[in-house]
UniProtKB/TrEMBL annotation, chains A, B:
Positions that bind substrate: N32, Q88, G94, Q95, S96, V97, H103
Keywords assigned by UniProt, alphabetized: Hydrolase, Nucleotide-binding
Residues spanned by motif Histidine triad motif: 99-103
Protein's name in the database: Bis(5'-adenosyl)-triphosphatase
Basic and acidic residues bias (residue ranges): 137-156, 163-176
Record keyword Hydrolase present: yes
CDD domains cross-referenced by the UniProt entry: FHIT
Origin species: Lophiostoma macrostomum CBS 122681
EC numbers for this chain: 3.6.1.29
Domain HIT: residue ranges: 7-114
Region of interest: Disordered: 133-176
GO molecular function: bis(5'-adenosyl)-triphosphatase activity; nucleotide binding
Length: 193, 193
Protein backbone atom coordinates (compact mmCIF):
# COMPACT_ATOMS: atom_id res chain seq x y z
CA UNK A 1 0.00 0.00 0.00
CA UNK A 2 1.25 3.53 -0.67
CA UNK A 3 1.75 5.67 2.43
CA UNK A 4 -1.13 7.78 3.75
CA UNK A 5 0.32 10.94 2.23
CA UNK A 6 2.52 11.73 -0.76
CA UNK A 7 3.83 14.90 0.90
CA UNK A 8 7.35 14.36 2.15
CA UNK A 9 7.08 14.80 5.90
CA UNK A 10 10.16 15.38 8.01
CA UNK A 11 10.61 14.84 11.73
CA UNK A 12 13.76 16.79 12.50
CA UNK A 13 16.17 15.73 9.76
CA UNK A 14 14.40 12.37 9.24
CA UNK A 15 11.95 11.55 6.46
CA UNK A 16 8.96 9.87 8.14
CA UNK A 17 6.37 9.96 5.34
CA UNK A 18 5.43 6.27 5.62
CA UNK A 19 4.85 6.61 9.38
CA UNK A 20 2.40 9.53 9.07
CA UNK A 21 -1.31 8.80 9.66
CA UNK A 22 -2.78 12.28 10.04
CA UNK A 23 -1.99 15.63 8.48
CA UNK A 24 -3.41 19.09 9.05
CA UNK A 25 -2.22 22.35 7.49
CA UNK A 26 0.14 22.90 10.44
CA UNK A 27 0.61 19.53 12.20
CA UNK A 28 1.13 15.82 11.59
CA UNK A 29 0.87 12.59 13.58
CA UNK A 30 3.19 9.61 13.17
CA UNK A 31 3.56 6.08 14.50
CA UNK A 32 6.75 5.09 16.32
CA UNK A 33 9.63 2.87 15.34
CA UNK A 34 9.63 1.41 18.86
CA UNK A 35 6.37 2.26 20.66
CA UNK A 36 6.84 2.16 24.44
CA UNK A 37 3.30 0.78 24.75
CA UNK A 38 0.83 -0.18 21.99
CA UNK A 39 -0.52 2.95 20.32
CA UNK A 40 2.33 5.25 21.41
CA UNK A 41 2.35 7.95 18.72
CA UNK A 42 3.77 11.45 18.24
CA UNK A 43 2.18 14.73 17.10
CA UNK A 44 4.41 17.52 15.73
CA UNK A 45 4.10 20.89 14.05
CA UNK A 46 5.02 20.71 10.35
CA UNK A 47 7.50 23.53 10.81
CA UNK A 48 10.74 22.20 12.27
CA UNK A 49 11.51 24.18 15.42
CA UNK A 50 12.98 22.84 18.66
CA UNK A 51 11.07 24.66 21.40
CA UNK A 52 7.39 25.01 22.28
CA UNK A 53 7.79 28.77 22.54
CA UNK A 54 9.04 28.87 18.94
CA UNK A 55 5.50 28.05 17.77
CA UNK A 56 3.03 30.69 16.60
CA UNK A 57 -0.41 30.89 18.22
CA UNK A 58 -1.92 29.22 15.14
CA UNK A 59 0.61 26.38 15.39
CA UNK A 60 -0.05 25.85 19.11
CA UNK A 61 -3.79 25.76 18.54
CA UNK A 62 -3.59 23.38 15.59
CA UNK A 63 -1.08 21.13 17.38
CA UNK A 64 -3.26 20.56 20.43
CA UNK A 65 -6.52 20.20 18.52
CA UNK A 66 -4.64 17.50 16.61
CA UNK A 67 -3.39 15.97 19.88
CA UNK A 68 -6.99 15.92 21.08
CA UNK A 69 -8.33 14.20 17.97
CA UNK A 70 -5.46 11.71 17.78
CA UNK A 71 -5.69 10.88 21.48
CA UNK A 72 -9.40 10.13 21.19
CA UNK A 73 -8.78 7.69 18.35
CA UNK A 74 -5.77 5.88 19.84
CA UNK A 75 -7.48 5.53 23.22
CA UNK A 76 -10.46 3.93 21.50
CA UNK A 77 -8.70 1.62 19.08
CA UNK A 78 -6.12 0.42 21.61
CA UNK A 79 -8.84 -0.18 24.24
CA UNK A 80 -7.18 2.17 26.69
CA UNK A 81 -8.71 4.03 29.66
CA UNK A 82 -6.26 6.94 29.99
CA UNK A 83 -3.37 8.71 28.25
CA UNK A 84 -0.03 10.25 28.99
CA UNK A 85 0.49 13.41 26.96
CA UNK A 86 4.01 14.79 27.33
CA UNK A 87 6.43 17.21 25.71
CA UNK A 88 10.12 17.14 26.52
CA UNK A 89 10.73 20.78 25.70
CA UNK A 90 14.48 21.13 25.25
CA UNK A 91 17.57 18.94 25.68
CA UNK A 92 17.71 19.36 29.46
CA UNK A 93 14.18 17.96 29.69
CA UNK A 94 15.20 14.83 27.74
CA UNK A 95 14.38 15.93 24.15
CA UNK A 96 16.43 13.90 21.64
CA UNK A 97 15.09 15.18 18.28
CA UNK A 98 15.13 19.01 18.06
CA UNK A 99 11.62 19.25 16.61
CA UNK A 100 8.68 19.91 18.97
CA UNK A 101 6.70 16.69 19.53
CA UNK A 102 3.99 15.59 21.92
CA UNK A 103 4.06 11.95 22.97
CA UNK A 104 0.61 10.35 23.24
CA UNK A 105 0.69 7.05 25.12
CA UNK A 106 -2.54 5.07 25.69
CA UNK A 107 -2.72 3.61 29.20
CA UNK A 108 -4.70 0.87 30.92
CA UNK A 109 -5.07 -0.07 34.55
CA UNK A 110 -1.96 -1.87 35.80
CA UNK A 111 -0.42 -1.95 32.31
CA UNK A 112 3.04 -1.42 33.74
CA UNK A 113 2.65 -3.23 37.07
CA UNK A 114 5.49 -5.58 36.12
CA UNK A 115 7.72 -2.70 35.03
CA UNK A 116 7.42 -0.71 38.27
CA UNK A 117 3.94 0.86 38.19
CA UNK A 118 2.08 3.61 36.33
CA UNK A 119 5.08 5.94 36.46
CA UNK A 120 7.47 3.51 34.74
CA UNK A 121 6.39 4.95 31.37
CA UNK A 122 8.47 8.06 32.00
CA UNK A 123 11.64 6.18 32.79
CA UNK A 124 11.05 4.34 29.52
CA UNK A 125 10.61 7.63 27.62
CA UNK A 126 13.95 8.78 28.92
CA UNK A 127 15.85 5.53 28.45
CA UNK A 128 17.69 4.50 25.31
CA UNK A 129 14.51 2.63 24.46
CA UNK A 130 12.75 5.97 24.16
CA UNK A 131 15.65 7.82 22.52
CA UNK A 132 13.94 8.84 19.29
CA UNK A 133 17.02 10.57 17.96
CA UNK A 134 19.07 7.42 18.14
CA UNK A 135 16.27 5.24 16.77
CA UNK A 136 15.76 7.40 13.71
CA UNK A 137 19.50 7.69 13.13
CA UNK A 138 19.83 3.90 13.33
CA UNK A 139 16.95 3.49 10.89
CA UNK A 140 18.50 5.90 8.38
CA UNK A 141 21.84 4.16 8.55
CA UNK A 142 20.24 0.77 8.12
CA UNK A 143 18.57 2.04 4.97
CA UNK A 144 22.02 2.99 3.78
CA UNK A 145 23.24 -0.54 4.38
CA UNK A 146 25.16 -0.10 7.60
CA UNK A 147 24.62 -2.51 10.48
CA UNK A 148 22.68 -1.23 13.47
CA UNK A 149 25.65 -1.91 15.69
CA UNK A 150 27.92 0.23 13.56
CA UNK A 151 25.18 2.85 13.36
CA UNK A 152 24.53 3.18 17.09
CA UNK A 153 26.22 6.16 18.62
CA UNK A 154 26.25 4.50 22.01
CA UNK A 155 25.33 7.67 23.84
CA UNK A 156 23.59 5.71 26.54
CA UNK A 157 22.77 8.64 28.76
CA UNK A 158 20.26 6.46 30.60
CA UNK A 159 20.20 2.77 31.35
CA UNK A 160 18.31 0.79 28.72
CA UNK A 161 14.87 -0.57 29.57
CA UNK A 162 14.58 -4.05 28.11
CA UNK A 163 16.65 -2.80 25.17
CA UNK A 164 17.83 -6.23 24.12
CA UNK A 165 14.32 -7.66 23.99
CA UNK A 166 12.83 -5.33 21.40
CA UNK A 167 13.53 -4.78 17.74
CA UNK A 168 12.66 -1.67 15.76
CA UNK A 169 9.62 -2.33 13.57
CA UNK A 170 9.87 -2.67 9.82
CA UNK A 171 8.69 0.10 7.47
CA UNK A 172 5.90 -2.25 6.35
CA UNK A 173 4.68 -2.84 9.88
CA UNK A 174 4.66 0.88 10.65
CA UNK A 175 2.90 1.72 7.42
CA UNK A 176 0.24 -0.88 8.14
CA UNK A 177 -0.44 0.69 11.54
CA UNK A 178 -0.40 4.18 9.99
CA UNK A 179 -2.96 3.14 7.33
CA UNK A 180 -5.20 1.59 9.97
CA UNK A 181 -5.01 4.65 12.23
CA UNK A 182 -5.75 6.96 9.29
CA UNK A 183 -8.94 4.97 8.63
CA UNK A 184 -9.92 5.03 12.30
CA UNK A 185 -9.28 8.79 12.52
CA UNK A 186 -11.61 9.26 9.56
CA UNK A 187 -14.35 7.26 11.30
CA UNK A 188 -14.11 9.42 14.42
CA UNK A 189 -14.18 12.61 12.38
CA UNK A 190 -17.30 11.42 10.60
CA UNK A 191 -19.03 10.51 13.86
CA UNK A 192 -18.31 13.90 15.43
CA UNK A 193 -19.66 16.03 12.61
CA UNK B 1 -1.18 41.09 50.20
CA UNK B 2 -4.54 40.15 48.71
CA UNK B 3 -4.44 37.29 46.21
CA UNK B 4 -3.93 38.01 42.50
CA UNK B 5 -7.63 37.54 41.79
CA UNK B 6 -10.83 37.96 43.76
CA UNK B 7 -12.62 35.35 41.65
CA UNK B 8 -12.98 32.13 43.58
CA UNK B 9 -10.98 29.62 41.55
CA UNK B 10 -11.44 25.89 42.08
CA UNK B 11 -9.08 23.08 41.17
CA UNK B 12 -11.30 20.02 41.34
CA UNK B 13 -13.16 20.43 44.64
CA UNK B 14 -10.40 22.59 46.16
CA UNK B 15 -10.44 26.39 46.43
CA UNK B 16 -7.03 27.59 45.16
CA UNK B 17 -7.65 31.33 44.74
CA UNK B 18 -4.53 32.41 46.66
CA UNK B 19 -2.33 30.14 44.52
CA UNK B 20 -3.53 31.56 41.16
CA UNK B 21 -1.11 33.86 39.27
CA UNK B 22 -2.71 34.02 35.83
CA UNK B 23 -6.29 33.99 34.58
CA UNK B 24 -7.76 33.99 31.12
CA UNK B 25 -11.45 33.69 30.18
CA UNK B 26 -11.09 29.89 29.98
CA UNK B 27 -7.91 28.92 31.85
CA UNK B 28 -5.90 29.60 35.01
CA UNK B 29 -2.38 28.95 36.28
CA UNK B 30 -1.52 28.14 39.89
CA UNK B 31 1.57 27.56 42.01
CA UNK B 32 2.01 24.24 43.80
CA UNK B 33 1.79 23.29 47.45
CA UNK B 34 4.86 21.07 47.01
CA UNK B 35 6.67 21.95 43.77
CA UNK B 36 8.76 19.01 42.55
CA UNK B 37 11.37 21.48 41.31
CA UNK B 38 11.46 25.29 41.69
CA UNK B 39 8.86 26.87 39.40
CA UNK B 40 6.71 23.73 39.02
CA UNK B 41 3.25 25.14 38.25
CA UNK B 42 -0.06 23.88 36.84
CA UNK B 43 -2.35 25.22 34.10
CA UNK B 44 -6.02 24.15 34.03
CA UNK B 45 -9.21 24.97 32.19
CA UNK B 46 -11.63 26.94 34.39
CA UNK B 47 -14.37 24.42 33.68
CA UNK B 48 -13.93 21.36 35.90
CA UNK B 49 -13.79 18.29 33.66
CA UNK B 50 -11.58 15.24 34.12
CA UNK B 51 -10.45 14.35 30.60
CA UNK B 52 -8.64 16.24 27.85
CA UNK B 53 -11.28 15.13 25.34
CA UNK B 54 -13.98 16.75 27.50
CA UNK B 55 -12.61 20.18 26.47
CA UNK B 56 -14.11 22.26 23.67
CA UNK B 57 -11.87 23.48 20.85
CA UNK B 58 -11.88 26.97 22.40
CA UNK B 59 -10.80 25.53 25.76
CA UNK B 60 -7.98 23.47 24.21
CA UNK B 61 -6.69 26.48 22.32
CA UNK B 62 -6.86 28.81 25.31
CA UNK B 63 -5.29 26.20 27.61
CA UNK B 64 -2.19 25.70 25.47
CA UNK B 65 -1.71 29.35 24.60
CA UNK B 66 -1.73 29.83 28.38
CA UNK B 67 0.74 26.95 28.84
CA UNK B 68 2.97 28.62 26.25
CA UNK B 69 2.90 32.03 27.95
CA UNK B 70 3.33 30.59 31.45
CA UNK B 71 6.18 28.30 30.36
CA UNK B 72 8.07 31.22 28.83
CA UNK B 73 7.86 33.18 32.07
CA UNK B 74 8.73 30.36 34.48
CA UNK B 75 11.67 29.25 32.33
CA UNK B 76 13.01 32.81 32.41
CA UNK B 77 12.47 33.66 36.07
CA UNK B 78 13.71 30.30 37.35
CA UNK B 79 16.81 30.46 35.10
CA UNK B 80 15.90 27.18 33.42
CA UNK B 81 16.97 25.87 29.99
CA UNK B 82 14.13 23.43 29.26
CA UNK B 83 10.68 22.35 30.44
CA UNK B 84 8.65 19.25 31.02
CA UNK B 85 5.04 19.76 29.96
CA UNK B 86 2.83 16.81 30.90
CA UNK B 87 -0.80 15.84 31.30
CA UNK B 88 -1.82 12.72 33.16
CA UNK B 89 -5.09 12.25 31.33
CA UNK B 90 -7.16 9.89 33.48
CA UNK B 91 -6.66 7.81 36.61
CA UNK B 92 -4.80 5.01 34.84
CA UNK B 93 -2.22 7.55 33.67
CA UNK B 94 -1.61 8.74 37.24
CA UNK B 95 -4.13 11.62 37.49
CA UNK B 96 -5.04 12.28 41.14
CA UNK B 97 -7.34 15.34 40.86
CA UNK B 98 -10.15 14.81 38.30
CA UNK B 99 -9.71 18.22 36.68
CA UNK B 100 -7.57 18.51 33.52
CA UNK B 101 -4.18 20.04 34.38
CA UNK B 102 -0.88 20.47 32.57
CA UNK B 103 2.24 20.29 34.71
CA UNK B 104 4.94 22.78 33.69
CA UNK B 105 8.31 21.99 35.26
CA UNK B 106 11.36 24.18 34.53
CA UNK B 107 14.51 22.10 34.00
CA UNK B 108 18.24 22.74 34.04
CA UNK B 109 21.19 20.61 32.98
CA UNK B 110 21.88 17.88 35.54
CA UNK B 111 19.24 19.26 37.94
CA UNK B 112 18.28 15.76 38.99
CA UNK B 113 21.64 14.03 38.65
CA UNK B 114 21.56 13.12 42.36
CA UNK B 115 17.98 11.82 42.09
CA UNK B 116 18.62 9.43 39.19
CA UNK B 117 18.91 11.64 36.08
CA UNK B 118 16.69 13.77 33.86
CA UNK B 119 13.87 11.21 33.95
CA UNK B 120 13.57 11.16 37.73
CA UNK B 121 11.04 14.00 37.50
CA UNK B 122 8.39 11.59 36.27
CA UNK B 123 8.84 9.15 39.12
CA UNK B 124 8.46 12.16 41.40
CA UNK B 125 5.25 13.23 39.64
CA UNK B 126 3.80 9.80 40.26
CA UNK B 127 5.00 9.36 43.83
CA UNK B 128 3.11 10.43 46.94
CA UNK B 129 5.23 13.57 46.75
CA UNK B 130 3.48 14.43 43.50
CA UNK B 131 0.02 13.24 44.57
CA UNK B 132 -1.86 16.51 44.20
CA UNK B 133 -5.13 14.99 45.34
CA UNK B 134 -3.66 13.97 48.65
CA UNK B 135 -1.78 17.25 49.10
CA UNK B 136 -4.87 19.35 48.57
CA UNK B 137 -6.95 17.11 50.80
CA UNK B 138 -4.32 17.38 53.55
CA UNK B 139 -4.25 21.16 53.18
CA UNK B 140 -8.06 21.42 53.45
CA UNK B 141 -8.12 19.26 56.54
CA UNK B 142 -5.33 21.25 58.15
CA UNK B 143 -7.37 24.40 57.60
CA UNK B 144 -10.15 22.65 59.47
CA UNK B 145 -7.83 21.97 62.41
CA UNK B 146 -7.02 18.31 61.85
CA UNK B 147 -3.42 17.13 62.00
CA UNK B 148 -1.75 16.18 58.73
CA UNK B 149 -1.19 12.70 60.02
CA UNK B 150 -4.86 12.20 60.77
CA UNK B 151 -5.74 13.79 57.42
CA UNK B 152 -3.49 11.59 55.26
CA UNK B 153 -5.37 8.81 53.56
CA UNK B 154 -2.22 6.71 53.32
CA UNK B 155 -3.02 5.50 49.85
CA UNK B 156 0.64 5.17 49.05
CA UNK B 157 0.19 3.78 45.57
CA UNK B 158 3.82 4.62 44.84
CA UNK B 159 6.85 4.79 47.05
CA UNK B 160 7.46 8.26 48.43
CA UNK B 161 10.33 10.30 47.02
CA UNK B 162 12.01 12.12 49.88
CA UNK B 163 8.57 12.51 51.47
CA UNK B 164 9.88 12.98 54.98
CA UNK B 165 12.25 15.78 53.98
CA UNK B 166 9.73 18.22 52.54
CA UNK B 167 6.91 20.20 54.09
CA UNK B 168 3.95 21.67 52.21
CA UNK B 169 4.37 25.41 51.80
CA UNK B 170 2.32 27.93 53.75
CA UNK B 171 -0.50 29.91 52.10
CA UNK B 172 1.64 33.03 52.56
CA UNK B 173 4.61 31.51 50.80
CA UNK B 174 2.49 30.34 47.87
CA UNK B 175 0.74 33.68 47.59
CA UNK B 176 4.07 35.48 47.55
CA UNK B 177 5.26 33.33 44.65
CA UNK B 178 1.91 33.79 42.88
CA UNK B 179 2.14 37.59 43.21
CA UNK B 180 5.69 37.57 41.88
CA UNK B 181 4.81 35.34 38.92
CA UNK B 182 1.79 37.51 38.10
CA UNK B 183 4.12 40.53 37.88
CA UNK B 184 6.63 38.66 35.76
CA UNK B 185 3.87 37.40 33.43
CA UNK B 186 2.78 41.01 32.96
CA UNK B 187 6.34 42.04 32.03
CA UNK B 188 6.55 39.32 29.37
CA UNK B 189 3.17 40.26 27.95
CA UNK B 190 4.25 43.87 27.67
CA UNK B 191 7.53 42.97 25.95
CA UNK B 192 5.79 40.77 23.37
CA UNK B 193 3.23 43.33 22.21
Amino acid sequence: MPPFTKDVVKFGTFVVTSQVFHLTPLSFALVNLKPLLPGHVLVSPRRIVPRFNDLSAAEVQDLFLTVQRVSRTVERVYNASALNIAIQDGVDAGQSVPHVHAHIIPRRKDDLSDAGGTDAIYGMMESEEGDLGRQFADQEKKKQGQSEEAAGDKRGRFPAVDEAGRKPRSEEEMQKEADWLAEEMAKDEKSST
